[in-house]
Specification:
The chain has 886 residues and is of the alpha/beta class. The protein has 34 helices and 23 strands. The strands form four sheets. It has an eight-stranded parallel beta barrel, surrounded by five helices. It has a seven-stranded mixed beta sheet with strand order 19-20-21-18-17-22-23, with helices on both faces. The longest helix is centred in the middle third of the chain and has 25 residues, at 550-574.
Length: 886
Amino acid sequence: KKHLNTRSMFVSAATWGLMLTGRLVSTSSEQKMDSAIKRLLAKGGEPLIRRGVNMAMRLMGEHFVCGESISEALKNARTWENKGFTYSYDMLGEAAMTDADARGYYKAYESAIHAIGKHSAGKGIYRGAGISIKLSALHPRYERAQYERVMDELLPRVKALTLLAREYDIGLNIDAEEADRLEISLDILEALCQAPDLAGWDGIGFVIQAYQKRAPYVIDYVIDLGRRTQHRLMIRLVKGAYWDTEIKNAQVEGLDGYPVFTRKVYTDVSYLACAHKLLNAPDAVFPQFATHNAHTLASIYHMAGTDFTEGQYEFQCLHGMGEPLYAEVVGPQSEGKLDRPCRIYAPVGTHKTLLAYLVRRLLENGANSSFVNRIADEDVSIEELIRDPIQETESIHPLGAPHPMIPLPRDLYRAQGEPRANSKGTDLSDEDTLRHLSDVLLESRQRDWVAQPTLVTQRVAVDSDGADTPTERWHAIHNPANHQDTVGQAMFSDTTQLQATVDRAAIAMKTWQHTTAQERAQLLLKAADLLEERRYLLIGLIVREAGKTYMNAINEIREAVDFLRYYAKRSVEYFDPETHLPLGPVACISPWNFPLAIFLGQVSAALAAGNTVIAKPAEQTTLIGAQGVQLLHDAGFPGDVIQLLPGAGDIGAALVANTHIQAVMFTGSTQVAQSIARTVSERSGAHGQPIPLIAETGGLNALIVDSSALPEQVTGDVLNSAFDSAGQRCSALRILCIQEDVADSMLTMITGAMHELKVANPDLLATDVGPVIDSEAQDTICTHIDNMRDAGFTVEQAQADAACEYGTYVPPTLIHINDISDVEKEIFGPVLHVLTYKSQELDTLLDKINAAGYGLTFGVHSRIDEHIDALTQRIHAGNIYVNRNI
């Protein structure tokens, strides 16, 4: 910054540009940028600014990127090649969001292989240059859930590139990515090794991350694979660049532990152990040791011994980061060098593609525990810098203890001072978990699911056709994904049963209100534990009755568990029997879109406060509600304290109007909430107080995206918010507003990614979007789409599987509108309305969003602090989501 106010206008401009580009990973202040630009403009004019910023970007790019094109990179590489280095080129680009992206990356890799092959001129895989590829760049759905697509579509692309690399005899390495993609990438590696047309060639490479706890076992696998298929596999050993992501993902998903080590020193030890394995299998692997740690380098050098032959092993480093260290390694011993080969991993691409790569490098090498960081720290002594990681590990007590500041995902809340456990997640990328889940789902499908009012203590016989009997009304519950699948039977209550249920609740209230908050909390905690024990069985029921995908069902159960534990904690904290008295019987009317989470959230809150509860689940998901009540009974809640009252809307209306009801909790449409409000306003509670109504409804939730937002992050959030759960969330995105300067390219990506979604029966793991809840919902949504199309609005839709004809499906739909007023009401399904706006129209746009009515949620994608502050302060919404695109 000291150069910013120098007398040289050009130096000032370039310095300002470097400051700007150096802050690519954080949000920026538009005012400060404007001020700096205006000062420089006053001195030298716009051409000077452009030239300075261009130079700054070029300096940044040249430091981290070998060249903007493969031809430029090959030219720039000559300097280090003349010093004895070799190269592995990586065509910059992150995960493909669309098939067009993937095909573009494929062509880039293909062209690069031709160029690298001609440049290497037959030097072979050990002395010549090679290429590194990312599987996520070659397919937009590279994930375990899409296994069949990956093997049918991605594998042929990888094989074609590998065959092309073989023609030139240049090595091709498959880069490592996130932990949940490891097993599927190993399947692709196995398929390549088994391919007859790649037999006998040793240029197939794979990257293994030492920070993964599975790394030694992965090495055992690849050694065995090499021997079984008679390949000598190139194995690049790295420490890993996704550590922050792996830690956060495991916490968010509630996994049993972390896939990576939580202490950097453990990764260093793991790296050495893995290196030892690789060096001891020279027949099966060609080790490639990628490290910037001088201690690790020296350890491997001595571990490998002094008798070195070409092709025994090599070191690797990153372009722009490791050359000074390896300049002491490459070269003859007569010049004081180690006479060992080093390959430079060289990114190739434009400045536009640099950001994600740069972020990973900064996080990896900027960490306090990083050797690259510590060697530049004058406060770190040489002795401390080169301390033996094994000795350091042995000094940790107990041996192998995790980092004390990184709690297990289970203990995440406890570490923050809350005495409750995080809900338990399910890893759908783990093969053992999937096998177990498959077995339990079969049991769930074979179970006779039944729901009936709690006061009906005996199971009543049901006619084979589910017909009504004189005193009970039975209804068959069908799977919305396949109406030919009858999930179970539900007996809907009549008015006589309703009155008897409410009377029981009123009588039970006399005893229940005297229980202590601690007693109620213990019952809720027991219910949470039981729910986790039964989660696999309930996943199957939720998938079939609510039409949810497996991941949605898992998250539904986790949210329900969190509610139970949260209200158990709050009951002890807040409910002083001297100051907080229960109200009396509470009516809890829950929706079908979160049939367990919101259902148990409402019920557990009312129970925690000392009230008795009559729970009326949505008629479409009565079986799930029945299981929620059964769970509470099994946990120890008395049968007359929490009662199930199945029924249609008329039963809900009658329940709300009953004079015994002292409070109502409701989640659903705004119209029904308004009707309930009118009903309860007509009478007072037992002590003359107004009847409380706690209602959650939907709204026209909007997301504003400005020109500074990153398309990939916008696309991911848009697809998740608008189309996950088939758009059947109160918080789902309904209106997307994109600044017109970036609208075309961003909408191209969003639309392309929408077409990659799989619309199918959610009993398939690959399904992204399942059915809407019933025919009424389907008709309402489709009518809206047809009306918008007839009105002249452009409509784009994804494709649904042929089998969807047996269910109530609506494909993800994108409708281009001109104004907020074009959408008159919330459409509760997978329909996204999109409009563009000019930057100077932002205030008017906000006014129109506010005027449309209450918004449950509102989102912002921006990297400009002032935009974020202005938007969040002016919007009228209950929940605000901000993505700063860091």
